[in-house]
Amino acid sequence: MRSVGVEEELLLVSADSGEPQAVSGAVLASVGEDEELEKELQEEQLETGTRPRTQMVDLAVEVRRWRGAASQRARAVGAEVAALATSPLAVDPSLSPGERYRRMAQEYGLTAQEQLTCGLHVHVGVESDEEGVAVLDRIRPWLAPLLAMSANSPFWQGEDSGYASYRNRVWGRWPSAGPVEVFGSAGKYRERVRSMIGTGALLDEGMIYFDARLARNYPTVEVRVADVCLDARDTVLLAALVRALVETAARQWRADEPPAPVDVGLLRLAAWRAGRSGLSGELVHPVTFEPAPAESVVGALLDHTAPALSDAGDLALAKEGVEDLFRRGNGAAAQRAVFEETGGDLSAVVAEAVRRTVA
Q1: CA–CA distance from 176 to each of 167, 194, 222 (Å)?
Q2: Which domain holds residue 12?
Q3: Mean pLDDT over each residue of the chain, to the nearest integer
Q4: What is the mean pLDDT of residues 229-242?
Q5: What is the CATH number of the domain that holds 339?
Q6: Which pTM was predicted?
Q7: pLDDT at 110
Q8: Which helix (H) or strand (E) holds 31?
Q9: Which of 10, 77, 159, 181 is the most buried (most CB within 10 A)?
Q10: What is the domain count for the chain?
Q11: DSSP character for 165?
């Protein structure tokens, strides 16, 4: 069974006002060697990471464990952590110290300065780069539904953006971000990466911000399209679905089934619609590329991955998780519900997110 691990980026906020707090340095100063907490681009955020797991119940324990550890460390310096993909309240982010981050700020200007976004990265083990690229080629149409399910960033700088995932729009300002074409082989993937870095528009391979890529430091495919999920249950659900997508794609490759020749322009439109609508409206169907209800699109994802989910023992978890997600709504729906219930109190939105992050 393939291993799976997740990285979650979390927002550091004031315990009183809910405003983002630039305290990652203070939080990380007290972190032990056995704690998987790291800094990110801005001082208002932290990243957690699980170890590779094969059982979803073990992954769920780790996700909650590291959210709890991050919360404890933040509270020690008078802050809280919130699994929010963007800050509902206005913020002027503070760049984390380090030469690489300084270079990013110099090279990318306002794009780097305003880039306070929190995503979910799912790593799934692959046997080789060749298998990994074959997987990347075949999962392309199925990434937008993951974005819709995870959408958790409706507010930006104190305003409703009109999007379920505005993080996706902000993240897309990086020069290499978004969907990509079919590569065909590991050699062509590496050649493309070298060519992109060779333009001078990217600092290094770490700035290959494809929606899904080969991980630099692990033998994994890394799917990066999702917002950080407000509810830890949804993190585990997405991890199960991503692992099943990877396994399904690998089986197709071994059976000599070619990847769908979907144009990158269509993939970008599907991602835009997923970020705009979340689960509250129509999405672009990953097979027909025509409008379809969100329930139909997510149902197609379940059908597509059902054999792999079943073989991993995750089919019931995935079905129940999807039903639960549609019943209570994703993070964007939860945030907007609190906003409406409190008469537009964004501090209350953050407070509820803090509670749900470690619930």
Answers
A1: 15, 13, 15
A2: 4-357
A3: 96
A4: 98
A5: 3.30.590.20
A6: 0.96
A7: 94
A8: none
A9: 10
A10: 1
A11: B
